[in-house]
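pasting for ref
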Amino acid sequence: MHHHAYLWTGPKARFDREALRRPPPHQPPPPGSSPELIERYRTAAAEFPASGLPPLETAYWLVKPGSLVRGTWLEPSAAAVWLGDRLAEYAARFASEAYRAPGHRAALVTAAVERLGSGGDVSLGFYLERPAFLSLALVGCSPNRTRPELTCPSTG
């Protein structure tokens, strides 16, 4: 197994648009469905797989473009180093002072190593100033424990 890293930062209002963060249903709406339902399906089918917006379910990062992968590591500890570096990079912008504390960030990195080591994914989110939002994710691949049917993204 290996782990892919993802990062998204942007306006909190965009992050809050949950419909854009859900994969489309496997089947389109049946004939005779309302135009609104058909349009929501078309929007989700077109935007979800191509958008850098974080999915509601962490494993669905794997269906996003490979260009969104920020790094790939075989060892959980190496992936967690990337996470720790990003936490340090953004710490000054965290809206919550408690999250800025080095001890809190270190605890998050330690927990990430444990979670990745047991085959889980890691997904963290932080409110930033302005209001903005930061999403960091480390996703196991080949296969993913919660969604083994999802294939590994092409990063080449």
